[in-house]
Write a structure and sequence with these properties.
single chain, 190 residues, mainly alpha, 9 helices, 76% helix
Length: 190
């Protein structure tokens, strides 16, 4: 006999369907069939599909933003090392590939849904603030740290979304270039 499904398992299944097939495929009947349970199991944990979708967004935010930045901070006290970790995020194996698929699906969903848009905006804002704090810790002024954080964040998001295969050496060279570019002080005249 199979144990009862947890809300987290439903959220994980919904996230997988979202990443693989898009938001329109995240349906209770499809998820119940995939999980080999009845629809009643769903309603034991969630009021409706909207509640599930809110929980999917919350789980994504927690995992891809809050837990990730906490993990990066614990890994290295040095802000320069944390920046290197941020730059390398898109190429960290299967977990990074899955995270990129989820991120792309949520961003696609956010183009036509206010709640998803709000979640993406909040995640982007929190991530940029975290990166800006790293640049500030390295001695850049607040305004410049924010601009550098935005530029670096845009690079990381683009790297995670571009599906083109690239040789590891080329990617490492590009990452080193971005690191040098982001850490290079600007000429005082600009």
């Amino acid at each position: 006999m199979r144990g009862a499904l947890t809300p987290e398992r439903w959220i994980e299944a919904a996230t997988d369907v979202l990443a693989d097939r898009g938001i329109d495929s995240v349906r209770i009947d499809l998820l119940a069939q995939q999980l080999q349970v009845t629809r009643g199991s769903f309603y034991w944990h969630f009021r409706d599909r909207d509640e599930l979708l809110r929980r999917v967004l919350g789980a994504w935010r927690d995992h891809a933003t809050l837990q990730l930045t906490a993990r990066l901070e614990r890994a290295h006290p040095d802000p320069r090392e944390q920046l290197r970790d941020v730059i390398s995020l898109p190429v960290r194996g299967r977990a990074a590939q899955r995270a990129a698929r989820i991120e792309l699906a949520i961003r696609a969903w956010a183009r036509h849904d206010a709640l998803a848009r709000q979640s993406v905006d909040e995640a982007d804002g929190a991530r940029i603030v975290y990166i800006a704090q790293l640049f500030s810790a390295l001695g850049f002024g607040v305004a410049e740290a924010r601009w550098r954080a935005f530029a670096l964040y845009a690079y990381v998001v683009a790297e995670s979304q571009i599906a083109a295969p690239i040789a590891q050496l080329q990617r490492e060279e590009r990452d080193r270039f971005i690191e040098r570019l982001m850490l290079q002080p600007l000429d005082a005249q600009t």
